[in-house]
Amino acid sequence: MPLINDLAMQRGAARNAVIKVFVFLLLFLAVDRTVDAVLNHGLQLYFKLNEDSRIVCVGHSRTVLGIDSDLLQEKLGMSVGKYAIQGANAQDRFAMIRHLFAARQNSPECVVFDVSAYTFSDLGLSSNSWRLFLPFMDDEQMSEYIANAIPTQKEFLIHKYVRSTRYNEALMALSVRGYLGYRANLKHNVVDTESVQRRIDAGRTLKMLFNEDSYGVFRKTMEYVTSHDAVVVLAYIPTLDILNDQDRDEHDRIIQIIEDYAAQNEQILFINYSRKYEHNHELFSDGIHMNANGQRIVSEDLANDLSQLFESLSK
Question: Which residues of the chain have pLDDT under 50?
Fold first, then answer.
């Protein structure tokens, strides 16, 4: 009898342990799914991926800090989204475009795409930027892109099934800003031009290079957008003249490539805001990013140009 009682107690303990593990897993999955749902919705709000915006601005930090989508929306009287993430490289932005179009019922009528003399070089951009798109990996387009970029199948599966691992501190902050409806440029400083010059003299600034592969990805991106009957505005958000002057010939050559490419397609418009503002140092927070005042001024110009564009399209 003691042996039977011991076996019964052991079976009971094992059963209780299994039940506890099962309940823990259920609670874990419930919390994990809830965290993902809350944070993902905040990102959808921040990037306005939940809206069928007529205009969408796509880019990296130059768009984040250079274009005020809320100001554009107010000036134009139409919905404007901004799908821009710091560090996004050429391949990232192609994936963002595909994700953007696949996630909407109606394609945007216009995509504003930031360009510069650094557009065809990914130097200085994050090699791990694919992590910024993990929250959207349930989308078929983005899942395929991440699967090709992620180092191991194990890591892919972890992010796929443990959804809370998709978010880092930066993404959580953007999610909070999405709920608050707050997309303002928080940089109010003015660039230290002497510091920029010292970096140039020390060889610690980005080089303006033309990479054929990046140019190929750029062309694919443009062809994808225009194939969906949307127009593209290639907006050269200003770069500080001091940086442009370190290799003005190469700068002008690359910008001419962009201008020539746009001229060959009636669905693509190139607008050079750098030519107008690169000498106005008060508008920059650093060599390649606008401060809040610079963003406002460039965005007002962009709003006027977009208004004229839509007027011409309606004729």
Answer: 3
